[in-house]
Each structure stands twice: as C-alpha cells, then as structure tokens.
Design the sequence.
C-alpha cells in the first residue's frame, strides 16, 4: 500500500498552468508507436517483469452479475495468482506474490474485505456514480464514505466529464477536493479521467493536472466502459503530467491504466512507458497499477512457457 | 537469490538480441568472400584484391569484398550500356512488373536485410527493421507505379542512359533504393558503388534483384574504394552521376564532371536547424530531438543538429532534454532494447570526439548522460553542447555524429535568421502549436525538407534534397524522376572543347575610332540659310541595374558590329563591379518582396511587358534585321514568339506552385516550388531577343530576380528591351542587365557566392568553366554545352524544363490531429 509519507496533499488550483498546456497529438503518437520497438525484455528479464506486472494488477470485476461467490473466487486468485509449482520453478518459492488489489463495486466491498482477510491485499472500490458519474454530488460523496466504511482502502472515483468538456476547471477541482476529503486518511483516491470521453489529449493533460492539484493519489485512464479505454497515447500524456507535477511540487502521484489491457505483451509496453517516462519507482505497485481482469491468465501462460518451453493451455491455469 | 527475483527487485533491462544466424548462413554460403555483381553474375577478377568488412559493434570480420579496378568498372559500364539498349525500349508497364517483383522480394527477405544492415553498419536493428527496410520496399513500389505511368504521364521524356550511382555508408540500403528505383523505373541502367565502409547489403540486394528476374546488366554493383568511384564518374560512357555523401566530395564530383554533359545530382551535407517555440509541446519536441540527432547515431545528413530554442523556455527545455538523455540506451546494434548502436568506423569516432573537444574549447558546456556503454566496440554517448554562439565552428560545421549544439532566440524573425545562418539547406524541423507561426517559419527556412512538429520523415512519394551547399536534385516523388530523364528532343550532349586557362579574362576593348557619321542616317537642319547634315543622336545604352540606367563602372564602351561586320552601335563594357552592383540590386529586389508577390500580380506584369513589347513590334523587328542581317520575316517571327513567350510565362506565374504529396504521413505533405532566388543568366547569340526573353521570363515569373548578360554578339535588342521593362511596372532590380564580354561577366557571376544559380547559353568550353567554378558554393547551373536549341519551337524554347530550373522544391510535412 502507498506510504503515507509525502502523500499528495494537493495544491491550490493553478489555472495558468492548466490553460497554458500544449500537447501535440502526432508527436505523442510517434513516441508511443516507437516505444515498443525501442524497449523489450526477453527470457529471464521477461519472466521477472511479468511477475512484477502481476503484482501491479488491480484484479477487477465490475459487472451487474457480480455475486459474493464470484468475488470470493476472484479474491482467492488474488492471493495465489501463480501456481505454487510454477513459483518454485521461478526460484520464488516462499516469496509472497499477490496482485496489487481487488477492485469491485461498492456493494461488493464487504465480500471482498472478508475474502481477503489477513492477506494484506487492499480492496479498491469504484465510486461516485461509476462509470458515468451522472448522479447528484451528495450521493456520490456518500458512496465514497460508505465504501470506506465497508473497508475499502482505495477508492476509484470518476470525474464529471462535463466539467472538462466545458473547461470548468474550478468545478472539477472543487468536486475532487470533496471526494478526497471523503476518502480521508484511511483510503487513497484514484481518479478516473475517462479519457475516452474527453475531447483531446490536451484535455487529458489538463484534467490530469487538476486531478493531482485536488489531491489524487493515482490518476487512472478509464472505467473500462468507455468506447476507447487505456491507450498508450492517453497514458503517455498522463505520465508526463505526473512528471511535471512532481517537478513542480515534489509529490509522486501513481498511474493506473485500465480497460483493454489483456495480454502480457501489452503489460510490458506499459511497464516500458513507466520506466522510460517516470522511472523505476513507477514500476512498483505503490505507484503503478493495471486495472484488468483477464491479463493475469495471460501472464501465467507466458510464465508457464518460460518455465517449460511449451505454450500453455488456458484451461491449465486456475480460474479467478 | 534467484536471478529472476533479483531482476524482479531491480527491474533492469536485459539483453534482447536479434539472432544473426541467417546472416551468418548467407555469408558462409558465399565463403565470406564476394566478387562484383556484373550482368547478374558474381565476377571475381583474376588477382583481385580483397578487403575486409568489419562489424563496428565488435570488430569482428564479416566478410571480404573485391576491390574493383578500371577493368571491372569498364566491364560494369559496358554491361549496363548493353542492357540499356533493351531496357530503355522495354515498355513502362513491363518495367513496372520488374520493380514490383523487386519490392515483393525485398519484403520477403526483409529480416535478413535488416539484420545484415545492422551488422554491417552498426545501426540499431529497430531502425533497420522498422525504418530502412520498409522504406526500401516502399521506394520500389512507388517507382513501380511511375514506370507503369511513364508513357502516359511523362511522354515528352526519355531515359538518360547509363547511370553511375555512389552512395554513402549511413543508410546503405535506403540510399540504394533512392538511387536505383527511379533510375530503372525510367528505363536507365545502373552501376552502383556502395560506400567503402558498408558494402554487404548492396551485394545481398543484387542477389535479390537477380532472383526477381531483372534482366542482366540493368543493375550492376561493384565494390571498391573512392578510386573506383572516380573511375565511374570519369567513365565517358556514363551519362549521369548520382551521389550522396559529403559536400567536399560533392564539390570534387562537380569539378570532375564539369563540361562533360553528364547529368549530376548531389545530396550532400547539412547542419539542420531544430527550432522550438515556447508554445510547442515541449515533451513532444524533446522526443523530436531524440529522433532528429540520435537517429542512426547522428550519422544522418539531415540530422537536426542545431537546436534553436526560444530563450524564455530554454532552461526548462534543456532540463527536460537532459533528463530524457539519461534514459538513452547505447549498445549492441542487434539488441532490440537500445536507442543507439555503433559508430560506423574508428575514423568517424575520432572525428566526432574531436568535434566535441573543439566544442568545449570554443566555450561550450558539454553534457553526456551517466549511462553505460559496452566495453568493446565503437560507441559514443549522446552529447549535448550548450552555451555556444553561432560563430563557433561546432555550430557551423557538420559533425555527423550524436552531437547536438544549442542556441537560443528571442523572436520568430531571429529564429529564422539563425536557422538560415548556414551554408547548408537540407532540412529543418519547426515546433509550435500555432499553425500560423509554424507554417510561416517553415516557408522562410531555406531547406529542401521542413518538418513541422515532427522530424526525419521520409516517404517514396515526397522528394528529398538540398538547398545551397546541401546539393541539388531531388530523390523521391515525381520530382525525383527528372534526375533520370531527358526531354525527348534532346540528345546526350557530348561536348568537345579545349580548356583555355585564361577563360573569362577580360579582353580590353579597342577604343572605337571616330568614324565620320553616315550622312544618309543623319538629319538636316537649316542654319544660317544653309542646309547642314547633323549627326544622329547617340543611343548608346547603359547598364540596367536596380531599375536605373547606369554607366558602366569602368567607363569603357565596346563596339557592336552587325552580321556583316559593320558598326551598328556601342554598349557599355561591363566589369566585375557592374556584376557586383547588379547582384546587390537583384538581392534588394528579392528581399523587398518580388518572390512574395502573388502569382497573379507577377502575371499582370508579364502581360504588361508583352503589351508594351508588342506596341513596339516594328521597331524590334527592324533592329533584329539591322544587327543580324536576317530576313524581315525571320525577325518578325522572333519578335512575335517573344511576345508569345511572355504570355506563356504570364500563364505559368500562377500555375506552378507545387503539389500535395501522397505520403504515408497522416496530415499534409506539400511540395512547394520555391524560387531559386537570384539567377545569373548568360543569353545565347542565336536569337538575341527571344533567347533573352525565353530565359528571363520563367525566372521572374517564378519569383526570382535576375542578372542578365545579353548576347555578347548582338546585345542591342536586349538593351532596347529595358525601356519596355521601364514602362511595364517591373520593380527596379528584378531584372538587371549587364553588357560586355560574356564569359568575363559570367565568370564573376558564377564565382559570386551570393548567386543561387547560373544559366549559361554559350560555348562548350564556357559550360565547362561555369560548371567547374560553380563548385565554390555548389550553386545550381544549367549549361547548354554549346549546343543550339530551337528557341522558336515551344517544345525546346519553353515549358517545364525552364520552370524546373527556375525553382527548387521544398517539401513541408505537417502532421495533423488534436
């Protein structure tokens, strides 16, 4: 879990900075298009990196048909994401390898907390009218409070996209400040920008800044429910905002891409992005999470291939 | 601790090598010894000298190749000549099939080509795999298309013949594609010599071409040192030379081919500016810098090697850049996790290191990131030198390595001035989120490629080539075809002449002896009751400079005889200073906006000239008859054609702006036909008025200003013409006319380093001197080698050839997307 030391407490809203932003889309695209050609890891390094990626997963279920049973099964997988025999072969027997968190709807927080008891794996809850954020503000705040009350230690809030689209940065800032207050000291706030709903990469950068100024512990790309979710382009712009914010205020804000990252190869692309744009600290799960549901299985299969030299069957990997 | 656990904790990168097995198998298959590729066969001359090809990343021997001598060069040229007979007559649609087959084959062998390229040259596999080799295939596909369309779209042209192509070591495959694809598409045959550091991929390419079934002799590849290159250049049966490499060698080639009638295209050095405004996406621009100067270890002719950044953001930008540099990885070219590979050769490494030391000695502050280099091999850290002034040699000279120098500017005007403060003009990169600003700056930087908010963009569909001492000719796009074409009516010039070392020296004019005036020409007046003959009023024209009639600087006059040797008048005898003054005046007219006027305005002025000339039609006819002794009918035809020609270029004034290129860039790539700038023009004797107008009109129609040297033999028509210019709203200085000894005046013009191009219509020997002397500042030239053309004919006397000579193409790349 994130240390409380030097947690981003937010800053006053610096509108000059927000308004003076410049993001050039084609330049962003060129960087992301060449990144995976410039950086790759193979063999031992790949295995280690994938294990690291695994520890950054926010193992997620956010569906209408989630039940206590479904959440329990997911939590069991969260505790033991890799088969013990495989871990041993990797030379990691005895190491406690778990995912970063389990992410559920507010109504399922209690189930998850129960299932994860003693594991030290935090429960993350989406809140604030997830995924659209189109419910009245008091209810959205109440939702945070209830989730915290139920034991969630991370709250993934969604922003009001209308504030970004209309350039109402003051309202966005004020709203997020209230969310942050509701999270209090016991839960960290991960702010979902829903980048796929925003108008431009410049707005993604601007919203990232405002979210950090309002005290976000993480900024996160997507709910997974937009038509376009996590892309390397959105992520690059957000990581650059994190870097600029760090340079100016000295606070390290985490980053979470979510939605559509389902292959080990994709996960490694994001890891390269983190390492290149932000540095090694952002490869660890106190500053980097990947919101995903099926990624874990693909990582397992790649590790299996590394160990045995055989391509793995999905049905040989225990279900989450 | 297990290895995995250790990496799990440190999260380091590890080695990610591309396997060299297939390349080694190919080299072994050739016993690591290569002959020359002539007539689709490997030829190993008896007693051939071999020399080693080394992998610069580890010093290991890759293979040995043959050193070609005169005999082998002769054999390759003969093979190409022989193949030309059939290949040039092969229908375009058939040649298209061959190019298509080559492109397909290249794709099939793409990884082999990429790995060999990286092993041979030291460039990262990422670049050879993702950039060089895909562009290689792209060029052949693109020019397969032009072969297909040649008979319909280029029906006025024919192939040039046997082309000698000499390519550099920094992009061995890509440069080969840029040279060979358009050449063979247009029906030429080729003798190619790869650079002496990098020969192997050209040899693999040759095999792939043969595999595609290309007829023997169409493409020949010979390896050797620069002396083999010289043999190709000097070979009398080579019709064109295409060269990419250093400006110094380009200069030598210009001198070596001078007067030979060989076509020449040169793609030379650069010191390209990378301009960052305060409203740019700074992180994007930082990545741009990485792609600009650390692409291919900075061994790129168009590398953005001069960072010019707005003063108010310079500190922030340099800080961001330095942090970015700490993330650069330099290592084994075959490693898929690096940014920079090896420098091609020890001598290059030494040169780069020497420049860095010079930069420090010149007061620069040198920054290199704290990163690891491999222990062995020719590696160099990415380097930034700040705090230098434009006067520093490291700011002026091409370093050709991973070394960036930086300057700051205050205003857009100053940015443009700094960007243009160079002898080169190959490329530029401009970063601003303000489209008005970015495009304005792009239009004002003198360079053949300008990349807005991007850098080092290449595609088969857009031309690449330089302004100024970065060379001439374009490679890529439709414009790249003309280097390999000749108008159908024109034969390959094979001028014969002897060289007089005193060429261009001033011959003093004999003072004209006072002759009694011809009483029949004079008028009579009655004075004091007597009828007296009086002399006609003297009409000796002056020079026409800056819109004014000025006396010749030397205050000498030369006598003009007609075709029968009778004195018909006098003109000023111009000297070096008249040329100097005319060039000054032409520059003033250029910078005060002749080129900036819209085409409509220039066309109006050309129509006005035509109108005023036609109004004095009879007078001009009379003068031509008088001085040339030609018939009235012939003189009338010349004057009528002159009026017609002015109309032609009035028409072209607003119809030759450029093209939108269909490149792979999302956005817009525009080829702009920019004026050459200042053109010095020596006019032919055969049509004293029409020759003058046929050359002046395209030049000024396209926004150039000119210094005209009229026919030395018959200058009077041109001098009568300046009165027409005076009455036609032509701004002063756009057209300047200096009379006198043609070759003496031309010599001064061609040696003048602020003249952009010289057109010479005179003798074969004069053509030689003009081309040779042009090497001083690598100005463009257009010489007739003493061959006459039919100026009356529209095919020979006007059109695209003239427009192409009057313009230089700038490709501006503008990506889009918000």
Sequence:
């Amino acid at each position: 879990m994130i240390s409380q030391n030097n947690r981003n407490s937010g800053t006053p809203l610096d509108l000059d900075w927000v308004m003076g932003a410049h993001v050039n889309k084609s330049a962003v695209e060129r960087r992301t298009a060449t990144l995976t050609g410039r950086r790759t890891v193979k063999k031992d390094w790949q295995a280690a990196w994938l294990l690291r990626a695994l520890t950054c997963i926010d193992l997620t279920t956010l569906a209408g048909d989630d039940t206590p049973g479904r959440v329990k099964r997911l939590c069991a997988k969260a505790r033991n994401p890799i088969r013990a025999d495989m871990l041993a072969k990797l030379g990691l027997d005895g190491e406690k390898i778990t995912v970063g968190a389990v992410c559920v709807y507010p109504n399922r927080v209690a189930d998850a907390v129960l299932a994860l008891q003693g594991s030290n794996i935090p429960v993350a809850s989406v809140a604030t009218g997830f995924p659209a954020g189109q419910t009245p503000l008091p209810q959205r705040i109440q939702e945070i409070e209830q989730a915290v009350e139920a034991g969630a230690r991370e709250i993934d809030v969604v922003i009001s996209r209308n504030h970004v689209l209309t350039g109402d940065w003051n309202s966005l800032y004020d709203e997020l400040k209230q969310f942050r207050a509701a999270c209090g000291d016991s839960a960290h706030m991960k702010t979902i920008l829903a980048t796929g709903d925003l108008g431009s990469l410049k707005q993604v950068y601007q919203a990232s800044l405002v979210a950090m100024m309002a005290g976000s512990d993480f900024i996160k790309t997507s709910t997974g429910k937009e038509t376009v979710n996590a892309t390397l382009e959105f992520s690059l712009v957000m990581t650059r905002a994190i870097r600029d914010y760090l340079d100016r205020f000295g606070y390290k804000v985490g980053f979470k891409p979510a939605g559509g990252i389902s292959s080990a190869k994709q996960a490694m692309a994001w890891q390269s992005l983190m390492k290149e744009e932000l540095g090694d600290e952002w490869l660890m799960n106190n500053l980097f999470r990947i919101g995903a549901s099926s990624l874990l299985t693909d990582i397992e299969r790649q590790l299996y291939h590394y160990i045995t030299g055989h391509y793995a069957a999905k049905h040989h990997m225990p279900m989450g | 601790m297990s290895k995995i656990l250790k990496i799990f904790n440190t999260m380091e990168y590890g080695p990610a090598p591309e396997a060299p097995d297939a390349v080694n198998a190919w080299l072994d298959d050739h016993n690591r010894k290569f002959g020359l590729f002539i007539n689709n066969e490997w030829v190993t001359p008896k007693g051939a000298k071999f020399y080693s090809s080394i992998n610069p990343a580890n010093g290991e021997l890759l293979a040995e190749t043959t050193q070609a001598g005169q005999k082998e060069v002769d054999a390759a040229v003969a093979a190409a000549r022989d193949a030309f007979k059939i290949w040039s007559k092969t229908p375009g649609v058939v040649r298209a099939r061959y190019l298509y087959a080559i492109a397909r084959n290249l794709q099939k062998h793409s990884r082999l080509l990429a790995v060999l390229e990286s092993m041979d040259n030291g460039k990262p596999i990422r670049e050879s795999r993702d950039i060089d080799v895909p562009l290689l295939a792209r060029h052949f596909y693109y020019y397969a298309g032009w072969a297909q369309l040649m008979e319909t779209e280029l029906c006025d042209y024919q192939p040039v013949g046997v082309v000698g192509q000499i390519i550099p070591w920094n992009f061995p495959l890509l440069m080969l594609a840029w040279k060979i694809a358009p050449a063979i598409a247009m029906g030429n045959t080729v003798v190619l010599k790869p650079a002496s550091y990098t020969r192997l991929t050209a040899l693999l390419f040759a095999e792939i071409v043969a595999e595609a079934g290309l007829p023997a002799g169409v493409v020949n590849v010979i390896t050797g040192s620069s002396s083999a290159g010289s043999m190709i250049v000097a070979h009398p049966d080579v019709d064109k030379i295409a060269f990419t490499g250093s400006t110094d060698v380009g200069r030598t080639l210009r001198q070596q081919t001078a007067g030979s009638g060989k076509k020449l295209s040169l793609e030379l050095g650069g010191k390209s500016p990378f301009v960052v405004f305060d409203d740019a996406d700074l992180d994007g621009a930082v990545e741009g810098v990485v792609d600009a100067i650390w692409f291919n270890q900075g061994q790129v002719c168009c590398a953005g090697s001069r960072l010019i950044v707005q003063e108010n953001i310079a500190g922030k930008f340099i800080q961001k850049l330095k942090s970015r540099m700490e993330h650069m990885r330099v290592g084994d070219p075959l490693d898929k996790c690096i940014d920079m590979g090896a420098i091609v050769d020890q001598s290059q490494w030494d040169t780069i290191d020497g420049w860095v030391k010079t930069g420090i000695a010149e007061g620069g502050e040198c920054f290199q990131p704290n990163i690891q280099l491999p222990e062995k091999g020719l590696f160099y850290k990415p380097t930034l030198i700040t705090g230098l002034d434009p006067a520093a040699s490291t700011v002026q000279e091409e370093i050709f390595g991973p070394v960036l120098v930086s300057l700051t500017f205050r205003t857009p005007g100053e940015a443009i001035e700094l960007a243009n403060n160079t002898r080169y003009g190959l490329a530029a990169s401009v970063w601003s989120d303000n489209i008005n600003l970015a495009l304005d700056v792009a239009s004002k930087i003198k360079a053949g490629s300008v990349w807005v908010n991007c850098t080092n963009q290449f595609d088969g569909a857009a031309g690449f080539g330089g302004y100024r001492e970065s060379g001439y000719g374009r490679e890529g796009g439709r414009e790249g075809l003309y280097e390999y074409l000749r108008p159908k009516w024109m034969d390959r010039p094979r001028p014969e002449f002897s060289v007089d070392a005193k060429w261009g020296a001033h011959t003093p004019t004999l003072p004209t002896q006072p002759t009694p005036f011809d009483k029949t020409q004079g008028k009579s007046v009655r004075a004091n009751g007597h009828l007296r003959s009086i002399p006609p009023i003297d009409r000796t024209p002056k020079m026409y400079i800056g819109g004014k009639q000025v006396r010749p600087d030397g205050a000498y006059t030369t006598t003009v005889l007609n075709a029968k040797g009778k004195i018909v008048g006098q003109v000023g005898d111009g000297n070096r200073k008249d040329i100097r003054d005319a060039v000054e005046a032409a520059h003033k007219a250029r910078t005060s906006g002749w080129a900036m006027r819209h085409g409509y305005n220039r066309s109006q002025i050309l129509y006005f000239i035509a109108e005023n000339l036609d109004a004095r039609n009879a007078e001009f006819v009379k003068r031509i008859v008088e001085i040339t002794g030609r018939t009235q009918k012939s003189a009338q035809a010349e004057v009528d054609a002159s009026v017609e020609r002015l109309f032609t270029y009035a028409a072209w004034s607003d119809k030759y702006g450029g093209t939108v290129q269909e490149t792979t860039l999302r956005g817009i790539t525009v080829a702009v036909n920019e004026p050459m700038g200042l053109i010095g023009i020596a006019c032919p004797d055969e049509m004293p008025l029409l020759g003058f107008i046929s050359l002046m009109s395209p030049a000024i129609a396209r926004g150039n200003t000119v210094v005209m040297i009229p026919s030395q033999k018959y200058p009077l028509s041109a001098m009568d013409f300046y009165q027409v210019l005076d009455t036609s709203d032509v701004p002063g200085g756009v057209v300047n006319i200096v009379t006198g000894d043609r070759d003496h005046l031309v010599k001064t013009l061609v040696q003048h380093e602020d003249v952009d191009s010289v057109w010479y219509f005179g003798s074969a020997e004069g053509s030689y001197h003009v081309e040779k002397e042009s090497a001083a500042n690598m100005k463009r030239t257009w010489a007739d080698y003493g061959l006459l053309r039919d100026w009356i004919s529209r095919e020979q006397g006007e059109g695209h050839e003239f427009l192409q000579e009057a313009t230089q193409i700038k490709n501006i790349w503008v990506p889009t997307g918000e």
